Amino acid sequence: MINLTLYGRPITKKNSSRVVRCGNYTKVLPSKQFELYQKDCLRQITGDKRLKLNTPCNMCCVYYMPTRGRVDLVNLLEATCDILVKAGVIDDDNCSIVASHDGSRVLYDKQNPRVEIELIEVNNV
């Protein structure tokens, strides 16, 4: 089991994408806000958590948002999975490794926005 808490306002990857031109090619990049959030999260994930898990697990994410506005939980989960892959916590975010997101939800905490992540190995997949 791995427990992580990533401090800072959780940001989705899909909202406000940027289209940039690289010579004759165009690329779609995530927003600057997401890139800053991802960089901060990668800084917070220490070496002892970078296990490159490759066994089936349940990833429970509890997001604490600074506002009570509507948030797309699926987009938050996708962003968190991508960050954990980039940090080397999990090997990949496909369904054979991240088998479920049971217990994930969005709550309110104006003073301390964060995401609390719990990865629990699942045996019956």
Protein architecture, described:
This protein is of the alpha/beta class and 125 residues long. The protein has one domain (2-121): 2-Layer Sandwich (60s Ribosomal Protein L30, Chain: A). 22% of the residues lie in helices and 32% in strands. It has two helices and seven strands. It has helices spanning 32-44, 73-87, and strands spanning 2-7, 18-22, 25-29, 57-65, 98-100, 105-108, 114-121. Strands 1, 4, 5, 6 and 7 form a five-stranded mixed β-sheet that branches. A two-stranded antiparallel sheet has the order 2-3. It is globular and about 50 Å long. The two termini are 17 Å apart.
Record the SSE blueprint.
Layout: E1 2-7, E2 18-22, E3 25-29, H1 32-44, E4 57-65, H2 73-87, E5 98-100, E6 105-108, E7 114-121
Parallel strand pairs: 4-5, 4-6
Antiparallel strand pairs: 1-7, 2-3, 4-7
Summarize the structure.
The protein is α/β, with parallel strands linked by helices.
